[in-house]
Amino acid sequence: MERMQGEGEGEVDHLERPSPLTDKERVMIQDSWAKVYENCDDNGVAILVRLFVNYPSSKQYFNDFKHIEEPEELEKNAQLRKHAHRVMNALNTLVESLDNPEKVASVLKVLGRAHALRHKVDPVYFKILSGVILEVLGEAFSDIVTPEVAAAWTKLLATVYYSITAIYKELGWTKPLTSTG
Predict the structure, then answer these.
(1) Do 62 and 79 touch, CB atoms closer than 8 A?
(2) Which candidate, 126, 123, 108, places its Cα nearest to that of 10?
(3) Number of helices and strands (H, E) in the chain?
(4) Which of 40, 115, 162, 173 could lock 121 by a disulfide, CB 3.0 to 4.6 Å apart?
(5) Domain 20-166 has CATH 1.10.490.10
(6) Domain residue spans in the chain?
(7) What does the pLDDT look like over 101-136, one tens digit per residue?
(8) Calpha distance 155→150 (Å, rounded)
(9) Molecular function (GO) terms listed (predicted)?
(10) Cβ-Cβ contacts under 8 Å for 144 (sequence gap 6 or more)
(11) For residue 108, how many other CB atoms are within 10 A of its CB?
């Protein structure tokens, strides 16, 4: 059964901007990310496979593998691996740029615009993906992702979600009508 968080995410107006990361939080995120990014592709695939297995509706945006059910098949899919690489590179750019708010805003603007206008992805999936990232990192890197580090990551990913939804709102994004089927 699919777990769906945040059904009816029309509450963009009510989201509160998370407080800025402290210097200590930035360092914790960057240090932990360095270990994760050493094995960028496999960790990215693990995150996306977890997303697609736990939230199958998230596959609707990917024609190349939306009908694949088996996690092992998903892991081998070239298009999924390519997208996982892009996700990890985008995260890497964000993490490397945490001391440059203009760069972070620019990256998120490009990401938000593309996902709203071109891919028409419901922004709730950014929230869902954030939870999956935290889950996978916490399991795969339990020695590095301590509760304090997880809290810093939670704050960063909440900021990403807040920024993405603000971009969607700025664009006048409304949830596309989905066909039955």
Answers:
(1) yes
(2) 123
(3) 7, 0
(4) 115
(5) yes
(6) 20-166
(7) 999 999 999 999 999 999 999 999 999 999 999 999
(8) 9
(9) heme binding; iron ion binding; oxygen binding; oxygen carrier activity; superoxide dismutase activity
(10) 31, 32, 35
(11) 21
